[in-house]
Amino acid sequence: xxxxxxxxxxxxxxxxxxxxxxxxxxxxxxxxxxxxxxxxxxxxxxxxxxxxxxxxxxxxxxxxxxxxxxxxxxxxxxxxxxxxxxxxxxxxxxxxxxxxxxxxxxxxxxxxxxxxxxxxxxxxxxxxxxxxxxxxxxxxxxxxxxxxxxxxxxxxxxxxxxxxxxxxxxxxxxxxxxxxxxxxxxxxxxxxxxxxxxxxxxxxxxxxxxxxxxxxxxxxxxxxxxxxxxxxxxxxxxxxxxxxxxxxxxxxxxxxxxxxxxxxxxxxxxxxxxxxxxxxxxxxxxxxxxxxxxxxxxxxxxxxxxxxxxxxxxxxxxxxxxxxxxxxxxxxxxxxxxxxxxxxxxxxxxxxxxxxxxxxxxxxxxxxxxxxxxxxxx
Length: 378
Known about the structure:
The chain is an alpha/beta fold. Helices cover 39% and strands 16% of the residues. It has 15 helices and 13 strands. The longest helix is centred in the first third of the chain and has 22 residues, at 73-94. The two termini are 26 Å apart.
């Protein structure tokens, strides 16, 4: 149930607003609160040219333009020291009632910036830290400063048990899932962003990164033999592995049936055209794209990766779960759904219920409870 909370002056902090799950969630949070009459300040380290997501004009953007790369260890120390100094000065200047910071290194820098002040800060890990390294030095600094957070927000209970509780007191840990935001008007438009074949479509979406397991998906699609039945695999997103994935597609002789169109501005309209949506990830923080596909009524297949899918999917009820890196199982389930239209419809119909469970209003109420908790004790 949504609870009424008084308007706040809040600072949201993230490295950039480039394409990514954390960035999207933060943009949704900013827009939601400014619409409620809150004063929202959105701080980014990187320049605005890196933005993929936009926010309401009423959100005050604080852009530090301090995203230059470090070319040596010493240069890195200097750059990060300067960032922390500027962050501290900026926080003192804007005097937010509370800060919410997203993503490991940014969280660490923000905690350093508020040390010795009375500004409440909530930091949130947005990817499973057991499977994502930030380097030995940053890990040590994070371990030192995280106990000073007002609240640590994780996205799944299992990461709380095997990671968060080893670093922060249990009463300073909360679990808040990501909201799913579906704009039915946009999702129903006839997409013109990319050209899609008029055939059976299997979709995936995310950064072209090893984490996402797209190599496994391409191999499973090849093994399924569905290209010979004119099925197509479409992987939305961009990243460092584009070239290697393109080479794999050529190697698997799938150039006419596997497509990498890059980023799209209206992903919901595109994904809604999928007959099957696949999450092939090796690990996640919380799989936003999976929840969105389910909210759009798609039949989904997902790896049972840490963390998130097994909290979202009830096997054979609203989706299919398989083991990570299991090409055979993924190929088998894709083929089974290809041949079973009734099952696809049933899974998709049941999947829509995630809209209520992960609604923006429900999740944002949990964030507001967290803010009240840390502001009231200062």
